[in-house]
Amino acid sequence: MTTTQTAAPRSGPSRAGGASRDAAPARTGRLRRPRSTQWAAWAFLAPVVIYLVVFYAYPLYRNVELSVKDYTVRSFVQGGAPFVGLDNYVKVFQDPTFVPAFVHTALFTVISIVFQFTFGLLLAVFFHQNFRLSGTLRALFLVPWLLPLIVSASTWSWMMNSDSGVINSVLHTFGIAPVNWLTSPTWALVSVIIANIWIGIPFNLVILYSGLQNISADLYEAASLDGANAWQKFWRITFPLLRPVSAITILLGLVYTLKVFDIIWIMTRGGPGNSSTTFSIWSYQLGFGSTLPDLSPAAAVGNLLIILALVFGLIYIQVQRKQDNA
């Protein structure tokens, strides 16, 4: 009995000591796992962070710096440009080109977005019927989006040529006088808007068509049983359920259209005069379009485009918050 009593206390500490020794590595392992997980997370994030800093944050900082200093070609290379604050922005606002460029940018953006979204939505609903050759025709509609912009703009420039263009040839067939699409102050902006609408429709088609795939077919079947016609199905089911997708489509279209440069420059170079000059064209003309580049005002115009895109982005975020809280 004594042996048993004396053995019990001895066995107790040995077991406790063994348990504590076994638990120590487990606790240490549990402490080390979060660190290794954090390092792995940072390793995965590092390429994205480096990309954003190098290609977004630094160029944005550099553009802001250019706009608040008086840079010349010499000071741009050697440094030492004097700080002028908002003088470059005042210079831009007082320039006679500002108002026409602002109006042209607004017209170019709004008209392009309205027609791109409208035609893209109609085509998305049309192809959602899944008829024969639907996939083939949908793939053909993607061609304008897949082509390089320089190819699309050059094609439209050739088609709208006043003397040998296909469009004027078709108008002549119907007895309509030829139109100076690219050389008339009245038609130059219209011409680049038409080309931009044609290029942007496939993007809207793809995004909206993918949104339609997420709408359950049971809703349309139930509406048919209730006697709803095609328009009622569209207005009561399709259009409301597509609002989140429509919002992001319009936002991306706005940001893209605000900065369109290739199409306008290739087709009209912002002319004749300033009849098709937008902020992006004006910024390029200030910075690179003359023998004496005006780098700081060019950067200021570029920052105005960034501010416009930021405003539309904030509006989108606010609208999404209201929809989520509704």
Q: What is the element layout, followed by pairings?
A:
Elements: H1 2-67, H2 73-78, H3 87-94, H4 98-127, H5 134-141, H6 143-146, H7 149-159, H8 166-173, H9 188-213, H10 217-225, H11 230-241, H12 243-258, H13 262-267, H14 279-288, H15 295-325
Structural commentary:
With 326 residues, this protein is mainly alpha-helical. It folds into two domains: 66 residues; 235 residues, MetI-like fold. It is built from 15 helices and no strands. Helix 1 crosses helix 15 and helix 14 runs antiparallel to helix 15. The longest helix has 66 residues. The termini are far apart. 25% of the residues are buried.
Quick overview of this protein structure:
77% of the residues lie in helices and 0% in strands. By secondary structure, the protein is mostly helical. The chain folds into two domains: 2-67; 91-325, MetI-like fold (Orthogonal Bundle), CATH 1.10.3720.10.
Give keywords.
326 residues, mainly alpha, MetI-like fold, 2 domains, disordered N terminus
Query: How far apart are the first and last residues' alpha carbons, in Å?
Result: 77 Å
> What is the C-level CATH assignment of the largest domain?
Mainly Alpha
CATH topology of the largest domain: MetI-like fold
CATH architecture classification of the largest domain? Orthogonal Bundle
SSE order: HHHHHHHHHHHHHHH
| Fraction of residues in β-strands | under 5%
The CATH superfamily of the largest domain is known as MetI-like
User: Unreliable segments (pLDDT under 50, ≥5 consecutive)?
Assistant: 1-31
Give the radius of gyration. Answer: 31 Å
Total individual domains: 2
Mean pLDDT: 85
E-strand count = 0
- Please state the structural category: mainly alpha
In one word, what is the shape?
A: globular
What is the makeup of the main sheet?
none
What's the total helix number? Answer: 15
- The helix content is over 70%
